[in-house]
Amino acid sequence: MKIREAIRTKILRSYLRWLGVCGLVFLGLLLLPKDFSRIVWIPTAILVISVAYAYFMSKVRCQTCEYQFPPAVMSSIRRNAKKSRINYCPHCGADLDQEVGANNSFKPNLLRGGSGR
């Protein structure tokens, strides 16, 4: 598995968890009794959804330096078009197309000048 694929998997898992939180919040809003003021609970729901999004997206990090990717970089990592996607970590410069072993140890690509350590 490549680093890019591992990051895409983390992004997808984060989105799915966030959507689960959104579903629970909306279900909770629907199940409120009629005498509750929805005007008070809707801003609370928006706050919970926003905090959940920030929390889950903060878990998407570079596997070499633990750099937290900004949302614009995450969308560039996910893109399939080779022209506009990011190929290296903006913080440590790790090649995102580098192979990762089963225990998340990196397999350097010797053809690109990897150290081989």
Largest sheet: 2 strands, antiparallel
SSE order, one letter for each helix or strand: HHHEE
Query: What is the terminal separation in angstroms?
Result: 19 Å
Our count of helices gives 3
Mass-distribution shape: elongated
Radius of gyration: 19 Å
Can you tell me about this structure?
The chain is mainly alpha-helical. Helices cover 48% and strands 3% of the residues. It has 3 helices and 2 strands; from the N terminus they run αααββ. It is elongated and about 55 Å long. The chain starts with a helix and ends in a 10-residue tail after the last strand.
Characterize this entry briefly.
The protein has 3 helices and 2 strands, in the order H-H-H-E-E. The chain is mainly α. The chain has one domain (3-112).
List the helices and strands and how they pair.
Blueprint: H1 3-30, H2 38-57, H3 71-78, E1 99-100, E2 106-107
Antiparallel strand pairs: 1-2
Helix pairs in contact: 1-2
